[in-house]
Task: inverse folding
C-alpha cells in the first residue's frame, strides 16, 4: 500500500507554541508535491488528526514543494491528557495516509 | 553598500545549554561581530519550567557554555545578549542566570556591566488589566478570567526589540533578559541602527535556531549581516552550508503561519521575499516586509497549578494477557476507580496508557499493533499529593495480580521498581493565549544594571 509518507521526502510535526500543532510535508519535486496535495485533502487530514475541517489551516507552498497544515493542539501542551509534549508524533498519522483511499 | 551600514550578529547556537561547535564559534568571533545573541529557552519543553521558574538544562552545562560565551564576548569586545534566560524567562530563572554570571566573574576576575531585563508580571496587576480589557485573546481561544490570572504561579510578557534596545542603551557588556520573543535579541541592534525592518525580523527568525537553517544543524554557529535592504546568512561550521532552500524552509519551523510572524508592534510578512545563493554556502535575502500595528501589544504566557500526579508502571509478557490487553486494562480501570471512589472522598482521574500499543497517539492511532509485550502506565491526577498516591496504591494490586477471568490462578506481572508508583509532584498548565496592550513598551518590564566584579 502506497502512503503519503512514500510520496513525500519528509513529514515532520512540531508545536508552534503551547496551543498549536504544525505539520510540514516536504516533497522533492513538483510532481510529488501535486500528488501530496491531492492525497492530503482537508477532510482526510482532519479525520486523521481527530480535528474538524474548519480548525485546519492549509498552506500550499509550490516554491518549496511543501504542504503545511496547522491546527489547534488536540490537548494543550502538557495538560493532563496530552501524550506528546513536543507534538512530533502526529506526523506519523499523515505519513500513514493511504494513497488509493479517498 | 557602505561597510558601516552593516550590522553583524553572531549566533552561537539555538539555545544556551544545547552545545555548539567551538571552532565555529571561534571563527565567528574572528569575523568581528557587532553583537553576540543567544536564546535561553522557549515553551517547547512544557509548562513545568514556567510554572516553577526552573531550568530545563543542567546548571553545570549552562555555566560551562555561558563562561565560554562571556570569554568570546570579552575577546570580541561587543555586547552578549541572552533572551528567555533559564528556559522560561520567569524572574526566578533570570536570577538563576545572574547568579551563575556572578560565579563566573568571581572565578575569572573579569568585571562586567550587566543589564537585567525582567518580564515577570504581577498576577494582581494582570487580573486588573483583564478587567480593563487590556488583555485580548489570540487564536485558538482559551478561557481566561481574572481569577485564572491570579492563580498563575508565573506570568511573563514577551519582550520585543524595543525592550532589548533599552537594555543595550545602558552600555552593558551583557544583557540577561527574561522572556523575549525568539527573534528580539537578534533584531534589536540592526533595527536600532536603521537596518531594513523586514530584513531585521526575517533574518532574526532565520537565525534564532542557530544553524538549524543550514545543511548542518549540529554546527550551531551562524553569522548574519543586516543592512538597509535585507540580510545575508553565513554559517560558521566548516561543513555547514546555507542554501535558498534551507533558509526559506526555516520559516515553516515551529511557526503556524509560514508567511507571517507576529511581534510586539507589528508583524513580518515574507510573501515577497527572495532568496539568492551568493556562493555555495551563503544566502542573501531581500524583499521581506515589516507591517506595523495600530496598537503596541506583547504576548503573555502563564502557568497555573494543575494538580498532583502519580504514575505507575507494570509490564505484561504472558501471551494470553498480551492478546487481551485492552479488556484486561479496561477491567482494572473500572474496578480500581470504583474502589477508590468508595474509599476516598476527593476528586481524581485515572488514565491508563498502553506502552507498545498506542501510548503515543491514543485513539487517533489506527495502525496500532500489539507486540510480544505491553507496558501499562497508570496516571493518577488529583488536587493533592496524598489523594494521588492513595489512588495509585489502590491500583497497585490490580497491576500486579489482576486475573483475566475469575476461573484462573492468580497471575503476577513485572514491576520494574519498588514501589512501582512514582510521584511526579505538582503539574502545571499553560493557561494564557493572549496579548497585553501597552502605552509604553517598558511599562510591563523592569531594567536594572549591575556592575559585577570579583
Result:
Amino acid at each position: 500500500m502506497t502512503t503519503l509518507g512514500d510520496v513525500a521526502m519528509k513529514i515532520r510535526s512540531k508545536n508552534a507554541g503551547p496551543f498549536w500543532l504544525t505539520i510540514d510535508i516536504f516533497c522533492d519535486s513538483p510532481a510529488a508535491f501535486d500528488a501530496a496535495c491531492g492525497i492530503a485533502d482537508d477532510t482526510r487530514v482532519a479525520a486523521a488528526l481527530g480535528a474538524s475541517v474548519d480548525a485546519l489551516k492549509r498552506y500550499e507552498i509550490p516554491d518549496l514543494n511543501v504542504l503545511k497544515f496547522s491546527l489547534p493542539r488536540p490537548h494543550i501542551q502538557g495538560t493532563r491528557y496530552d501524550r506528546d509534549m513536543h507534538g512530533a508524533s502526529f506526523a506519523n498519522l499523515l505519513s500513514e495516509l493511504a494513497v488509493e483511499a479517498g | 553598500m557602505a561597510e558601516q551600514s552593516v550590522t553583524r550578529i553572531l549566533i552561537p547556537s539555538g539555545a544556551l545549554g544545547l552545545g555548539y561547535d567551538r571552532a565555529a564559534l571561534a571563527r565567528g568571533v574572528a569575523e568581528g561581530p557587532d553583537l553576540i545573541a543567544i536564546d535561553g529557552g522557549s515553551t517547547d519543553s512544557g509548562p513545568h519550567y514556567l510554572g516553577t521558574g526552573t531550568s530545563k538544562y543542567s546548571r553545570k552545562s549552562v555555566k560551562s557554555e555561558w563562561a565560554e560565551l562571556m570569554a568570546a564576548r570579552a575577546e570580541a569586545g561587543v555586547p552578549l545578549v541572552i533572551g528567555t534566560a533559564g528556559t522560561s524567562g520567569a524572574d526566578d530563572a533570570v536570577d538563576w542566570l545572574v547568579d551563575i554570571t556572578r560565579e563566573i566573574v568571581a572565578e575569572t576576575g573579569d568585571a562586567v556591566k550587566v543589564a537585567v531585563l525582567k518580564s515577570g508580571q504581577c498576577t494582581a496587576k494582570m487580573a486588573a488589566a483583564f478587567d480593563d480589557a487590556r488583555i485580548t485573546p489570540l487564536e485558538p481561544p482559551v478561557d481566561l478570567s481574572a481569577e485564572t490570572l491570579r492563580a498563575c504561579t508565573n506570568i511573563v510578557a514577551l519582550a520585543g526589540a524595543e525592550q532589548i534596545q533599552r537594555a543595550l542603551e545602558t552600555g552593558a557588556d551583557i544583557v540577561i533578559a527574561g522572556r523575549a520573543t525568539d527573534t528580539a535579541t537578534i533584531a534589536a541592534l540592526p533595527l536600532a541602527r536603521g537596518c531594513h525592518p523586514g530584513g531585521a525580523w526575517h533574518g532574526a527568525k532565520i537565525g534564532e535556531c542557530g544553524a538549524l537553517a543550514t545543511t548542518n544543524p549540529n554546527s550551531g554557529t551562524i553569522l548574519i549581516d543586516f543592512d538597509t535592504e535585507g540580510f545575508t546568512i553565513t554559517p560558521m561550521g566548516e561543513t555547514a552550508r546555507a542554501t535558498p532552500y534551507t533558509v526559506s524552509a526555516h520559516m515553516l519551523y515551529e511557526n503556524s503561519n509560514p508567511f507571517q510572524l507576529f511581534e510586539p508592534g507589528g508583524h513580518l510578512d515574507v510573501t515577497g521575499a527572495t532568496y539568492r545563493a551568493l556562493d555555495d554556502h551563503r544566502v542573501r535575502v531581500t524583499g521581506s516586509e515589516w507591517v506595523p500595528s495600530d496598537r503596541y501589544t506583547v504576548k503573555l504566557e502563564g502557568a497555573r497549578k494543575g494538580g498532583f500526579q502519580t504514575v505507575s508502571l507494570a509490564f505484561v509478557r504472558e501471551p494470553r494477557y498480551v492478546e487481551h490487553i485492552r479488556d484486561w486494562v479496561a477491567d482494572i480501570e473500572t474496578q480500581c476507580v470504583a474502589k477508590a471512589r468508595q474509599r476516598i472522598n476527593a476528586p481524581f482521574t485515572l488514565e491508563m496508557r498502553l506502552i507498545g500499543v498506542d501510548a503515543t497517539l491514543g485513539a487517533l492511532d489506527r495502525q496500532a499493533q500489539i507486540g510480544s509485550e505491553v507496558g501499562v502506565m497508570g496516571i493518577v491526577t488529583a488536587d493533592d499529593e496524598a489523594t494521588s498516591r492513595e489512588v495509585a496504591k489502590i491500583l497497585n494490586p490490580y497491576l500486579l495480580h489482576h486475573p483475566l477471568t475469575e476461573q484462573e490462578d492468580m497471575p503476577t506481572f513485572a514491576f520494574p521498581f519498588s514501589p512501582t508508583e512514582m510521584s511526579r509532584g505538582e503539574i502545571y498548565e499553560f493557561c494564557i493565549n493572549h496579548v497585553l496592550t501597552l502605552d509604553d513598551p517598558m511599562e510591563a518590564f523592569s531594567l536594572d544594571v549591575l556592575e559585577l566584579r570579583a
Notes: The interface with chain B takes residues 14-20, 22, 24, 26, 48-50, 55, 57, 59, 61, 63-64, 66, 68, 70, 72, 74, 76-81, 83-86, 89-90, 92-93, 96 of chain A (CB under 8 Å). The CA atoms of residues 20 and 72 of chain A lie 4 Å apart. The mean pLDDT of chain A is 95.
